[in-house]
Amino acid sequence: MSGSPTSNPNSDTGLASHIASGISAFFPPLAGVIFYFIEKKDQLARHWAVQSIFFGVSWIVLWIAYSILAAIFVHIPFLGPLLLGLLYLVLLFGGVINAFQGKKWEYPIISAQCKKLFPKLVP
Question: C-alpha 96: how far from its chain's center?
Fold first, then answer.
């Protein structure tokens, strides 16, 4: 614990950058929205807040699309939801690990597309 700061005086939340980033990445998109509006100074926390929003909203949209398709094709084997769930967990925990390590990382495909659609949201 000696090498890791527990608070950040240059932060609006008072949390260390990697802690605020990890919380944003772990609870998408709700924590991302909260940290995006609260945190104005810490660029790493804002970066992860935006990534959390992009990731969470993308998965909500994909889940809605998948639910519609599943309702149409009732006899789809369980492999589809299993693979979708595993992909979600891999991307979620990949982001959480990078966020808690204090790295600026972006979700593949999702971040690039969202940056094009919402350029003013990116810090």
Answer: 8
Q: What is the distance between the alpha carbons of residues 48 and 103, in angstroms, rounded to a whole number?
A: 9
**Share of residues in the chain with pLDDT > 90 (%):** 27
Length of the chain in residues, anyone? 123
The contacts of residue 118 (CB under 8 Å, 6+ apart) are none
Write down the pTM of the prediction: 0.74
Question: DSSP characters for 51-76?
Answer: HHHHHHHHHHHHHHHHHHHHHHSTT-
Alpha-carbon Rg for the chain in angstroms:
16
Task: Estimate the crossing angle of helix 43-72 against helix 79-100, to 10 degrees.
Answer: 180
